[in-house]
Design brief:
The protein is mostly helical. The chain has a domain of 25 residues. It is built from two helices and no strands. It is elongated, with a radius of gyration of 19 Å. The protein starts with 12 loop residues before the first helix and ends with a helix.
Length: 59
């Protein structure tokens, strides 16, 4: 068997963050179109609070 060295995995962090942002934006646009701006503000505030809580929990 030939001596093969495994190649490092590609870094998809930027692609994942970009697609996460794109998905968040279209979901916000759908919520805004169906129910208005206030639910978008409430969902975004809830997401911010949840992310902050996770950051504190993880240390």
């Amino acid at each position: 068997m030939p001596d093969r060295h495994p190649q490092p995995a590609p870094n998809y962090t930027n692609a994942a963050l970009t697609m996460g942002w794109v998905n968040l934006m279209w979901i916000f646009m759908v919520i805004w179109g169906l129910w208005g701006l206030l639910p978008v503000v409430l969902v975004s505030a809830g997401l911010n609070r949840g992310i902050s809580w996770l950051a504190l929990k993880r240390g």
